């Protein structure tokens, strides 16, 4: 935005933003899992084609094997992407846990301060 307009933007709730990010990451992981299932099915189909065509048409069997190899590369790429997203989800969950732990420790410290202050009276 330009000039003075950013001063009038509504501030977003950080907890809502975190929740939106978690939902988006989990949805993307589900999409990748579906895509992986589809690619695995295609790999099985190409393997079957290659087996059937091996005796009849060697060039068709060779092209089916090449397509299978391309699909396996695609499958590895999808698994890497899913792993990266799952790592992000775990990192966010760990950060949330650490934040709540620190907040609880802070409350405990302030409670013990109050107790020590009351004992000194």
Short description:
By secondary structure, the protein is mainly α. It is 88% helix and 0% strand.
Provide key terms for this protein:
single chain, 121 residues, mainly alpha, 2 helices, 0% strand
Please tell me about this protein's structure.
The chain has helices at residues 14-56, 58-120. α1 (14-56) runs antiparallel to α2 (58-120). The protein is an all-alpha fold and 121 residues long. It contains two helices and no strands. The chain is rod-shaped, with a radius of gyration of 27 Å.
SSE topology:
Elements: H1 14-56, H2 58-120
Helix pairs in contact: 1-2
What is the share of helical residues?
Answer: over 70%
Helix-strand makeup class: mainly alpha
Low-confidence stretches: none
How many angstroms separate the termini? 56 Å
Largest sheet features = none
Radius of gyration: 27 Å
Tally of alpha and pi helices = 2
Mean pLDDT: 88
Shape: rod-shaped
Beta-strand percentage range: under 5%
Instruction: Please trace the helix and strand order, writing H or E for each element.
Output: HH
Overall strand count: 0
């Amino acid at each position: 935005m330009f000039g003075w307009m950013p001063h009038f933007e509504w501030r977003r709730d950080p907890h809502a933003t975190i929740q939106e990010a978690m939902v988006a990451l989990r949805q993307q992981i589900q999409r990748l899992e579906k895509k992986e299932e589809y690619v695995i099915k295609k790999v099985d189909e190409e393997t079957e084609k290659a087996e059937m065509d091996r005796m009849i048409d060697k060039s068709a069997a060779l092209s089916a094997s090449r397509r299978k190899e391309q699909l396996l590369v695609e499958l590895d790429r999808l698994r890497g992407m899913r792993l990266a997203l799952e790592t992000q989800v775990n990192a966010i969950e760990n950060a949330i846990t650490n934040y709540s732990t620190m907040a609880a420790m802070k409350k405990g410290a302030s409670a013990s301060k109050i107790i020590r202050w009351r004992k000194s009276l």
